[in-house]
Amino acid sequence: MIEHCLYGVKVDCDFALFDHPTPVSALAPGAHSALELRQVGAGAAAPLPESLAENVLVYATHGRELYLRTDREAARSATGQPWHLEVEGVASFSWTGGESVVYYQLGDKGNRGLLVFWFVHIFLPLYLTLERGYDFIHAASVEVDEQPILFIAPSTGGKSTLGDYFLRQGHPMLSDDKVATFLEHGRFYAVPSHPHHRPFRQFEVLGNPIEHFARQARPIHAFYVLDQAGPDSGIEITEVTGFRKFEQLLPNYLFSFHFLQEQRLRWLAQLADQSLVYRVRRPWNLERMHETYTAICAHARNATSS
Amino acid sequence: MNGARVLELSIDMGCWLQVADITYCSNFPLRYTVLHTATPADKDMNLNQTVIFSPEVISQEVSGETVLLDLESECYFGLDAVGTRIWQLIRASGDLRTIYSTLLDEYDVEETQLQSDLESLLTEACARGLITLHAAP
Questions:
Q1: Do residue A257 and residue B17 have CB atoms under 8 angstroms apart?
Q2: A254 contact residues in B (CB cutoff 8 A)
Q3: What is the pLDDT of residues A84-141, one digit of tens each?
Q4: What is the pLDDT of residues B88-122, one digit of tens each?
Q5: Are A22 and A6 in contact (CB under 8 A)?
Q6: Contact A245 B67 (CB under 8 A)
Q7: With an 8 Å Cβ cutoff, is B33 touching chain A?
């Protein structure tokens, strides 16, 4: 088995997911046991009871429909609960609650490249939310002086582009799209995801490999909500306070399933309560990216709540 | 009213926000609606009432303010600092006259203004299904 470290969890697989290694030093505290990815038929059968058809959640991403099935009113996974995620035509993943083996099966439109994409980019965040108690934020994240800062913006709002700029200035990257978080000893931690970034728009692609990948989970320092201004505008950074912080974080909670809503409210409110959140109004001008970078770096180094 | 805080209750208490629930897809836009601000009521409030929470509503404080989630409608609401204080008093007592007296003591506000603002907030909360008002026993 080939060993990987993804989202702070050790993942063993019967083939190498990437051409480059993932540092096991990035294992998160509380990551618990390893996860194993096995092909259906490779020594074990996939757990697929007929009752799985009773509860189906459907959603779409990256141009494909996904079907998440389980045998009961959906909630965070219980011991022995069967789960099945089908990426239409490409692959399916199944597992049993409380167990650490995930079985995959390729569909008629699937191949190993697509399998890796769907496993790493979509399946693992979902699995880790349901099984391991992570909460995911749709954000890009880099370190400034070993402290993670998270960039939040709507789709095409420039967070990956800004993250890429920080990366090229030598800052370790935790993620360019999905940041796993967990709460330990009263602090929220951000977990390095997988060593790729995608500063471009393309479906079903993990992106370019990165060497300067963050090595460990660290407490979240601050959120920066990216706003666009005219190309000649100045840069303004203002603090968001009170329940407006919750409002900023809410649309970026990744798996907003109905059955997670109470968990989502409590987690988001606690995260908002304990986090520094700022709005960054910056010029929509790639030639002035360095000014934005400099302003955010300086701000992050001195950021404390007013 | 020693140490009372001076606040414009009618403005602060009217600061409601509703954010509709979203189903997962990071590429979908968030549906977002700002509700109207509360307006003063035009008659005296009946203080002989008890405020009861909807069992479907859960609340969490965020930096001195409060987020409410109605599990039935799946809508979120925000309360500012004054709204949060009122919510705390509702949780502690539920007796409207006690809530009113406490607020009158804590804030530098005219009685008629407080009645009007409190009624506006509770009317809004009733309309949204967050609370119900019952005649005091």
A1: no
A2: 24, 26
A3: 999 999 999 999 998 999 999 999 999 999 999 999 999 999 999 888 778 999 999 9
A4: 998 898 899 999 999 999 988 888 888 888 888 88
A5: yes
A6: no
A7: no
